[in-house]
């Protein structure tokens, strides 16, 4: 057989195979199977659509609900009232030099604090606030810092604020409250520095420790008004019992509190949302035991799909992460809760009802008062 004949035979065989495949695809059974697959694809897409809008990238991963990782480190140390300590420069959400060893031109050295700066224009003369309540022990010239303020918070806890302006709001011996303005970042090079910045240092019994174990940057997405503060669980239980709520349970509230803490979101706000979304889940509701596992309707609903498989803490973490995402880029002067449902929010909105925030705000205010 010649090479030409072999080529012709091969071509014919390929053509027969293609014809057989085309006939198979034309089979009504195959066509029906393809139609079913397409329908299943659209059903899955519609089920996940609400979550794809509101959940962030981390929430899409299998382990996101139990994760506390984010763009920042969650502080391990809390103030006496269970809330986070105050970030000393709220107008600046950038660390130019971290705690630990560094080299700024004179060789490797230990850096006993963090430097907070965001370029001269956004750093010079910015206000500085006390991390916690305490007594001012130093307010003036300090070698290396130029101008500095030291505050003794008691119990061996001391904070230092260096490279400040000579314009200060406090003097040695003054008592200050948490979040009280104490001075301003200096302009230019103040003391031993490469440019304007706030050197913020935390000491425990005379030893410098990592300040990020105590404070969290405001640019974590949450405005200070909505940042984490611990639940007074017995008081909140009384509040919820008055409303005959199925959420009035210590274990449930601890899960919500832990979820809020992991994302630096106030758990009182998470509870306020359950008030607006589910009327705090009345015990008389036939599905109360199911609803309390997901009273924020993450993944679309507590009643079906992924939303019906979550624990209370998992659902609360996802709701908190959504709040963090939606809180970003809030224009100055906009109410932080209203911004969560604002139609001009570039990150989406939490609820379709534009009046949602009014009810949430009412419940939030009531919960903070317990």
TrEMBL record:
It comes from the Bacteria. Residues 110-211 form the M23ase beta-sheet core domain. The chain crosses the membrane at residues 29-54. InterPro entries: Cell_wall_metabolism_enzyme, Dup_hybrid_motif, M23ase_b-sheet_dom. Keywords: Membrane, Transmembrane, Transmembrane helix. This is M23ase beta-sheet core domain-containing protein. It comes from Paenibacillus glycanilyticus.
